[in-house]
Amino acid sequence: xxxxxxxxxxxxxxxxxxxxxxxxxxxxxxxxxxxxxxxxxxxxxxxxxxxxxxxxxxxxxxxxxxxxxxxxxxxxxxxxxxxxxxxxxxxxxxxxx
Amino acid sequence: xxxxxxxxxxxxxxxxxxxxxxxxxxxxxxxxxxxxxxxxxxxxxxxxxxxxxxxxxxxxxxxxxxxxxxxxxxxxxxxxxxxxxxxxxxxxxxxxxxxxxxxxxxxxxxxxxxxxxxxxxxxxxxxxxxxxxxxxxxxxxxxxxxxxxxxxxxxxxxxxxxxxxxxxxxxxxxxxxxxxxxxxxxxxxxxxxxxxxxxxxxxxxxxxxxxxxxxxxxxxxxxxxxxxxxxxxxxxxxxxxxxxxxxxxxxxxxxxxxxxxxxxxxxxxxxxxxxxxxxxxxxxxxxxxxxxxxxxxxxxxxxxxxxxxxxxxxxxxxxxxxxxxxxxxxxxxxxxxxxxxxxxxxxxxxxxxxxxxxxxxxxxxxxxxxxxxxxxxxxxxxxxxxxxxxxxxxxxxxxxxxxxxxxxxxxxxxxxxxxxxxxxxxxxxxxxxxxxxxxxxxxxxxxxxx
Lengths: 97, 450
Fold this sequence. Notes:
The structure holds 2 protein chains of 2 kinds.
Chain A: H1 2-16, E1 34-40, E2 44-49, H2 59-71, E3 78-83
Parallel strand pairs in A: 2-3
Antiparallel strand pairs in A: 1-2
Chain B: H1 10-29, H2 42-72, H3 82-104, H4 113-138, H5 144-171, H6 177-185, H7 187-215, H8 223-247, H9 253-280, H10 289-308, H11 311-314, H12 319-352, H13 370-393, H14 396-421, H15 428-431
Helix pairs in contact in B: 1-2, 1-14, 2-3, 2-4, 2-7, 2-12, 3-4, 4-5, 5-6, 5-7, 5-8, 7-8, 7-9, 8-9, 9-10, 10-12, 10-13, 12-13, 12-14, 13-14
């Protein structure tokens, strides 16, 4: 069961690589903007994410995009996205610019 | 509010501002106002207010409606007042300008247009200031960039109230002596509060956040940045303190202005140091054109404030050239450079934000063509510097030739704005994916926002 969840988390992470931050150009995953991915029973995914800037005008679009993208992953029935600024994102969290 | 939203009318503010900037430069090209007329002539007042209110203040107001919520991470309170405020500001400016034209004697118009226009401007700016102030108050304690905006808004109120008094005095509606004393001795204070307090301090505050955002630099509130706020606020306080001295005909104005100028220089030098630190600590390897194009504006700011600290230059024949460098090099240069980025950014959000994550979309940078725009910015700053020199040397024809080039460069940069709005630089395969609503040039798409 745990293996299934881990596999689903990996699939979700891969799926999220298609969402690119419009400003920087890298994927949300590579920029370190996806803080946590959790999968619960019943195909419920909980994503904790941030944006590069608190109050960023793109944030609602980014969270909606993540929700839509994760919901489309096979085996996921529902996606909950939580936007957080704790800890605030720093450029050091990026894999590469 | 965790995330931000799009300001519905910001693009309309920007479009109106750009039109006014073209109009103002067109007037200078036609030889209207200074240097063909005296610096205090009504024709020059027309020109100055088209640039200061029409271009710079509308640009700043539109930008603040979008970015104050970013600065304080809260929604704008009363954002629906943005549209009526824009109408009030445009009609108010038109009436004010018509009043100055009447004052020049070129047209037989009622002088009452001056206070009427000023009253509309007080209302329009009052609405903007109210919306932003309530938003800021709800977000206390304020982060440092927002504190700059707060001082800028207080300066704006001081500027427009002084202007309103001038309009009553110039139209002859009041016979009291104190408004006339203000007209005689208070115009430089009106200009310093407007150009220094409202436009510059606000621009500096917002730039701390935007530069960190666009450079991917750590957003740290440095002691030097706080010192910039203190020095700038003290300078504005000293200038405001000169107003009662002028009203009651007390001496000491020149001394207070000199001290204010020294504080301003300290603020500018510290700000320059902060900008360099932000640039050096950036994570973004290749800064975009808006950053490089802003450097020339920072240089113009430093140069003009440095020379304003010399009383013989401030009060002498060099003053118009220094003011020109400040207004067109610093404020307008920074405005054009940041607009170049902001328009592409907001257009991306409006167009591709709703379909993000569903289909491949371009990046913000795909909406612009930096090679073209870079040439226009070079021409712009080069012609501003040359026009400043022309004002120093007093060659009117040379000045107008420089303004012509400056206007060409401005139109070139604005063409890039229009290309960004029209998605012209976006690769055809990505330009209009299914579900995309093309943005209007400057009006909101009414089905997109509720």
